[in-house]
Amino acid sequence: MYSKDRFLKIANFYNENAHIQRRMAVNIVNALKKNNFISYDKILEIGCGTGLLTDIIHREIHYNELHLNDINNFLKIAIPHKFILGDIEQIDLTDRYDLIVSNAVFQWIDNFEKLIGKLHSSLVDGGTLAFTTFGPLNLIEIRDITKIGLKYYSYDYYKRILSNKFKIVFSDEKVYNIGFPSPLTILKHIKYTGVNRVKKVHWNKKNMNEFCEAYEKFKNHMGYVLTYNPFYFILSKK
Fold first, then answer.
1. How many helices (H) and strands (E) does the chain have?
2. Could you read off the pLDDT of 112-171 as tens digits, one per residue?
3. What pLDDT does 193 receive?
């Protein structure tokens, strides 16, 4: 999964830079409400981070218990909860939940199929799994230039894997093109949102200049374009 040390370094900058992740959090909660998933006994949020999605759940969804998970406690909000420390792929989930929810986390998962089986077992009968993640077009400009990036699965892959254990209540795919004033501001944005593995690049003046020059082909009327490709899923346990 993603690095605890990496996120610790950016936690103070995350919320003010994570504009797409905030939009995704709002969208998945709105989709839950639109499909009448508005009241739960016990909720688990995976990869709660600084509490960006947590805050929206607290304001918009009715619940009795809120359990929050992450590899460290990065929370920037004060909401009553039980904190579950650890990598969701490694820890045991001893409770059963009515809703398991996650925002912009599952792209970091090493074994998605195994995790889905684990979450299915941790839901009550008829329980809900709602999550967002990213698809193959995500940060495609960065991967084109640096040849570094996460492995993103297709929309059809997720639908196929999920339909084995869940009824798909809602799914959607979006593509957002965001304009930046320069390639360097894109690198800063990526650094402060932790959305890619460009830290594997040993940046120096030479390759920084090469990156900026290569990014010219992704410039248009919006500026220097960076693509996000969010996926949304709401599922009901079979």
1. 8, 10
2. 999 999 999 999 999 999 999 999 999 999 999 999 889 999 999 999 999 999 999 999
3. 82
Predicted structure pTM score: 0.92
- The whole-angstrom separation of Cα 41 and Cα 81 is 13
Coil vs helix vs strand at 91 = coil
Rounded Cα distance, 215 and 143, in Å: 11
> What is the CA 4 to chain-centroid distance, rounded?
15
Place of tokens 């460290």: 72
Q: 128: which residues sit within 8 A by CB, 6+ positions away?
A: 32, 37, 40, 98, 99, 100, 169, 234, 235, 236, 237
Q: Could you give the angle at which helices 19-34 and 52-60 cross, rounded to 10 degrees? A: 30
What integer pLDDT is reported at residue 190 of this predicted model? Answer: 86
Residues 6 or more apart in contact with residue 125 via CB below 8 angstroms = 237
Query: What is the DSSP code (8-state) at residue 218?
Result: G
For residues 142 and 97, the answer to whether their CB atoms sit within 8 Å is no
The whole-angstrom separation of Cα 173 and Cα 190 is: 21
